[in-house]
Amino acid sequence: MAAKHYYVTTPIYYVNDNPHVGHATTTLYADTLARFKRLDGFTVRFLTGTDEHGQKIAKAAEQAGVAPKEFVDRVSQKFRDMCDGLGLSEHYFMRTTYGYHARVVQAFFQRLRDKGLFVKRTYEGLYCVACEQGYSLSSLVDGKCPIHKTEPVKMNEENYFFKLSVFTDLMRQRLDDETRDRSKDVAGTIPNAMSLQPATKRNEILGKLREGLDDVSVTRKSVTWGVPVPGDESQVLYVWYDALINYVSSLMKDRVDETSTAAPDLDALIKADDFRNYWPTAVHLIGKEILWHHSAIWWSMLAGADIPMPHTVYTHNWWTVEGEKLSKTLGNAIDAVELAKRYSRDAVRFYILRDGPNRSDADWRHEQFVNRINTELAGELGNLLSRSLGMLEKYCAAVVPGAGSGNAGAKELEQIAKGLPNKLREAMDQFAFPQALDAIWELVRRANRYVDETQPFKLAKDPAKRAELETVMHSLLQTLRVLAHVLPPFLPDASEKMKAQLGIARETVGGLDEACCWSEAFRGVKTTKGEALFPRVEG
Ligand SMILES: [Zn+2]
Questions:
Q1: Distance CA 201, CA 296 (A)
Q2: Distance 150 CA to ligand 1 centre (A)
Q3: How far is CA 369 from the centre of its chain?
Q4: Is 145 considered catalytic here?
Q5: Which residues, at least 6 apart from 219, have a Cβ–Cβ distance to it below 8 Å?
Q6: Which of 226, 259, 273, 305 has the most CB atoms at less than 10 Å from its CB?
Q7: End-to-end Cα distance, the chain
């Protein structure tokens, strides 16, 4: 069987701002998916990075009194630090100031120009520098940018316009057609993929498409910090235009000769395995503010360049904090990396997966965060590990016993474990992170109840019940082994600690299904009870 490939991306983050909890959320969602797919046997490419061009950056650099490149180096590093602080798994960190990226962007532009998809005309209109986007009068709120609440500037310059209107019907068809047969797509590996998830986002874009698409300006004349338009040095490409192309250019990085004066051969790059393995089965994770660019505009750009459109765009919503909007003036920003240092990386990841804005806006409440640590993590998972290993030490010299005489609870635990892979696959392909955790916690909770039901401390007092006691200990330990193997995407640090305590740090499993089956080889393994997985916290 050919290797299964999975390509997941975060947006590349705009370096006008320091990382905040919104960035951490998209990044952790993507990392969880990347880790899960690796566990499930996929070869994964995980892309994140920074978006570094545009007028806004040039201005910010000027204000900081440094050259733009120096400015973006500095802020980009903060995003790398965030990735390190959150404990990201293997990923590629993209920067739009990389030379090869500009070469691909120019080739992409050239291809659309050759096909007559640009017109040059005067742009007259209102423009929000903070958004790097033009606004029609009707889309303003009280004459101000709906996002930044600032008055847009008047602009009048000759630009290249992309004929977005050419693609309106194609986009509608694409969205209406979510059940189409994807088997002929290149490397189609994502089952039941919908173009836009969740479905409410699909309806939102369909509604906009019904109104028709306006041609969109893709270049700026009065800006120099950007990718120059090939053959017209008076213009640079819009920052969002160059940024979107990173999702394909980053797959071509090893094949683009930056030193060559000849334009890269886009056709050859698209046919290369580096590209075909991961495209178009790409999964773009984004926040809701950039859905329009990542759907209608990005897809039209690709369609114009004869590159297949990516399969899935998953949009998450926004955080509020203790009931208030996140805002600089309120100073209520949540620093996920600081919280990870103070509590643990796993606690932050768990809270974001469990209670984050994956379907609708979510409210970050510190009390709830602490509560999750003390109940699910310490009280349920941590307690299951420590009480099971404590009993095993006492009754079985810390060695995993055989299956004993068996009982109904033991069978039930084994069945729940066996059913986990498909439940997890389904939840993860729908970006339903809380449902994935629910599936795992069904096993955690059943195992804790099993201890209460069977009362091993009583069984241990009666030598005639030795076989029954061994059944209980065997089942609990097998359950913990399964948990240690399925938790890496969700609680990577805790799962490492669990494996160490369970004596299976070096055990490798041949995929998710095998990980969720009881293991004959686990019998006789010596365990070592260690420190608490999640110490309780005060607040
Ligand atoms: Zn704005």
A1: 12
A2: 7
A3: 21
A4: yes
A5: 159, 160, 229, 235, 236, 237, 238, 241
A6: 226
A7: 50
Copy the structure tokens of residue 73: 């180096």
CA–CA separation, 400 and 519 (whole Å): 11
456 near 473, Cβ under 8 Å?
A: yes
Q: Which residues are near ligand 1, the ion (C-beta closer than 5 Å)?
A: 128, 130-131, 145, 147-148
For the question of residue 366 being annotated catalytic, the response is no
Say whether 83 is catalytic: no
- Mean pLDDT throughout 184-201? 57
Secondary element (H or E) of residue 265: none
Residues 254-313 have pLDDT tens digits of 999 888 888 899 999 999 998 999 998 899 999 998 999 999 899 999 999 999 888 899
Residue 23 is among the residues annotated as catalytic for this protein: yes
- Concerning whether 20 is annotated as a catalytic residue, the answer is yes
| 357 Cα–ligand 1 center, Å | 22
Distance 54 CA to ligand 1 centre (A): 14
Count of all residues that appear for the chain in the document: 539
CA within 13 Å, CB half, 302:
24
**Mean pLDDT of all residues belonging to the chain:** 92
Q: Which residues of 6-34 are buried (b: 16+ CB within 10 A; e: fewer)?
A: bbbbbbbbbbbeebbbbbbbbbbbbbbbb
Distance 146 CA to ligand 1 centre (A): 7
Helix 383-396 and helix 466-486, axial crossing angle in degrees, nearest 10: 140
pLDDT in tens, 405-431: 999 999 999 999 999 999 999 999 999
Between 511 and 186, the more confident residue is 511
Residue 56 Cα to chain centre, angstroms: 26
Q: Which of 4, 20, 78, 163 is catalytic?
A: 20
Domain 365-522 maps to which CATH number in 3.30.429.10, 3.20.20.150, 1.10.730.10, 2.60.40.10? Answer: 1.10.730.10
Phi, then psi, of 205 in degrees rounded to 5: -70, -40
Catalytic residue among 69, 115, 120, 148: 148
**Residue 4 annotated among the catalytic residues of the structure:** no
| Torsion region of 324: left, alpha or beta (phi above 0 gives left; psi -120 to 50 gives alpha) | beta
Contact partners, residue 388, CB within 8 Å, separation at least 6 = 447, 451, 473, 476, 477, 480
Tokens of 244: 């979107």
d(C-alpha 285, C-alpha 315), whole Å: 6
Find the catalytic residue in 131, 163, 288, 529: 131
pLDDT of residue 63 exceeding 90: yes
Residue 396 bears catalytic tag:
no
Structure tokens at 205: 């874009």
- The DSSP H or E segment spanning 307 is none
